[in-house]
Amino acid sequence: MLRIHFTGQDLRRITVAAGPASMWELLLSLHMVQHRDGRLVFGDWRRDVRAKVAPDQLRLLLELAPASGYSPDFLTPAEPPAGFEAALQTVLSTPRQSLRQQLSMISGRRPPSTWIQALANGEPRALRRLDDAIRAYHEAAIAPYWSSIGMLVAADQARRGRTLVSHGVDDLLSSLHPRVRWEPPELQVLGMRDRHLQLEGRGIHLQPSAFCWQVPTKLRDPRLPPILVYPVDHTPGILGPGLGGAVQAADPLSVLLGVTRATALEATFSGCTTTQMAELCQVSLASASHQAGVLRSAGLITTRRTGSSVRHEITERGLCLLSARQQFGRPAH
Asked: Is the pTM of this model over 0.90?
């Protein structure tokens, strides 16, 4: 098992991600493409991905992310606030020495392909192929499901926050996952290779993930910022297409709130300004402000001022409403 050793300073430096990490979701989803586990959760998604992603591009990525064993740490850099695009640029700008070192750990199990050798040398053409493959895969396998992924992670984060506030850090660490045990000052992760990770005052970042399955994971290099990625609670059917388009009139949430207000609620899922809400709902600023006021009065969103604009964010109550729609109310297709 993995044993993560905490000091008192580490316990004060625990952070829980507020949202999903795009490159972690991408990497772990590549693992799930190759498995048959979790058919109720991932079955439809797998069929869609294999139908949409070009086989040659998928093959390139699966060379880097085999179904089991090591995947290079450079594929999952610390996520910048800007999200996928910034994270991808960090991947593509990985120093050549790190590329060579990490890719040698893959080629140690099997002869490296010509492309892996070129990538290890930092050749521009190989990096462009990696860029193209990641973008194509992300567009087919991650982007359409991002709202669903985000809801799963946000629901987990809200639950962890309540646990921490109500019961303290011991309960937080004890309740992360059935395969995680908190034996102070040591966090034990069953099912992972026998290793010791000394935090040494750096703290640890807890990252819930929709595509992490059964067993938590982490970066291999102990010198990198400590992170533990763990599975969220999955519900069959929840990993449906994203919520980010126009709401269908047959949607029960639209019947309850009205199409415009339901769309406005969805807009606040990742946080939005009044202008962004108006654009998504295709209404005037005054109308968007009115819709936000109604949602705020119902306790479904909060509004806070950021500089010269205001930002609307969904509350736990609003998230529960969206989650119920995603799980039970999606129109048949």
From this structure: no
Q: Residue 8: how many CB atoms within 10 A of its CB?
A: 8
Dihedrals phi, psi of 184, to nearest 5 degrees: -50, 135
Identify which of 156, 228, 222 has the alpha carbon closest to the alpha carbon of residue 190: 228
Per-residue pLDDT of the chain (333 residues; tens, 9 = 90+): 999 999 999 999 999 987 889 999 999 999 999 988 888 888 889 999 999 999 999 999 999 998 888 899 999 998 665 688 889 999 999 999 999 999 988 866 678 889 999 999 999 999 999 999 999 999 999 988 887 788 788 878 888 888 898 899 999 999 999 999 999 999 999 988 889 999 999 999 999 999 999 899 999 999 999 999 999 987 666 565 544 444 444 456 666 777 788 888 888 876 788 988 888 888 889 999 999 999 999 889 999 887 778 889 888 888 877 766 555 444 433
What is the per-residue DSSP string for 11-48?
HTTEEE-SS--HHHHHHHHHHHHT----HHHHHHHHHH
Q: How far from each other are the two terminal CA atoms of the chain, in whole angstroms?
A: 44
Peptide bond just before 112 cis, omega within 30 deg: no
What is the residue whose two structure tokens read 């949409």?
52
Q: Give the C-alpha separation, 325 to 333, whole Å.
A: 15
Cα–Cα distance, 186 to 206 (Å, whole number): 15
How far apart are alpha carbons 148 and 154 in whole angstroms? 10
Contact by Cβ (8 Å): 281, 260 = yes
Ramachandran angles phi, psi of 24, nearest 5°: -65, -45
Sheet arrangement for strand 204-209: 14-16, 204-209, 227-231
Q: How many helices (H) and strands (E) does the chain have?
A: 15, 10
